[in-house]
Design brief:
Pfam families: GST_N_2
Largest sheet: 4 strands, mixed
Family: Belongs to the GST superfamily. Zeta family.
CATH topology: Glutaredoxin
Catalytic activity: RX + glutathione = an S-substituted glutathione + a halide anion + H(+)
GO molecular function: glutathione transferase activity; maleylacetoacetate isomerase activity
Shape: globular
CATH superfamily: Glutaredoxin
Helix content: 25-40%
Strand order of the largest sheet: 2-1-3-4
InterPro entries: Glutathione_S-Trfase, Glutathione_S-Trfase_N, GST_Zeta_N, Thioredoxin-like_sf
Distance between the termini: 45 Å
Radius of gyration: 15 Å
CATH class: Alpha Beta
Structural class: alpha+beta
Amino acid sequence: MAEAEATPARPRLYSYWRSSCSHRVRIALNLKGVEYEYKAVNLLKGEQSDPEFVKLNPMKFVPALVDDDEVIGDSYAIALASIEILAFVVPIWPTT
């Protein structure tokens, strides 16, 4: 009997809607066609200092992208990772 193929977990994006860096990452991921789970981190309420978030990103910055056991805590690095590391189908750059 063949084993059922496991569905890969979607990356989790810890973000705040008013953060320009988070906005940059959402644009890159959406252009790339990446399905991700959005996790709101309200900076005005100090949720970036929550112990669970600090375990993910000790710098307490948003955005933070969690893909399996890899955490990327910089918007530019996340945009690059969505191009080079994460295995997604739609190219972000033109191929002409």
